[in-house]
Amino acid sequence: MLNDGEYSTYTQRDGAFVLYNVLPGVHLLDVQSHTHLFSQVKIQLLEATETDDEMGLKCIEYAYPGASKQAIPHPLILTAHAQYQYFEPRQGFSIGTIFKNPMLIMMLFSVGLMFFMPKMMENLDDEQKEQMQKQMELQSDPTKMLSSLWGDMTNDPEAEAKKSIKGGSKARRSKRE
């Protein structure tokens, strides 16, 4: 293809190609292939003079855009630089990929905790066991847990009035006795 489709042709079975009725000037030859990568060739066609019957032809090859220029002879012989790889080969089975799975890592961590937590509980002191039992009792009733965490931070006037009534009745009983 010349100049992004201004002139185009197909290759023959032996790989040869011919472009007809190309006007003089500077043209860019680009080979369109789905399987191979070819370099671009800049072709300069000069007009024929009265003394020469043939047109002047200069060809410069660019391996890739920005690469150094290289003059090549006519007729052009273009070779593929690379073959396109559209698909990646499938990875084989590996035990390592199974252990990199986040779900398996979480499962192994949970099983490890289920195994080691009873062992850790056996090594606790009696005081620490009692403290943990109290915390578990508080966690069973959410209202007790919240009241112990927040304490008197609620500033609820009804709750303060109830506390003062309870505290006053205790004080009276202790005076009477």
UniProtKB/TrEMBL annotation:
It is found in: Membrane. It comes from the Eukaryota. InterPro entries: Beta_sandwich_EMC7, EMC7. It comes from Proboscia inermis. The chain crosses the membrane at residues 98-117. PANTHER family: ER MEMBRANE PROTEIN COMPLEX SUBUNIT 7 (PTHR13605:SF4). It is a single-pass membrane protein. Residues 146-177 are annotated as: Disordered. This is ER membrane protein complex subunit 7 beta-sandwich domain-containing protein. GO terms for cellular component: EMC complex. Pfam families: EMC7_beta-sandw. The keyword Signal applies. Keywords: Membrane, Signal, Transmembrane, Transmembrane helix. Residues 2-106 form the ER membrane protein complex subunit 7 beta-sandwich domain.
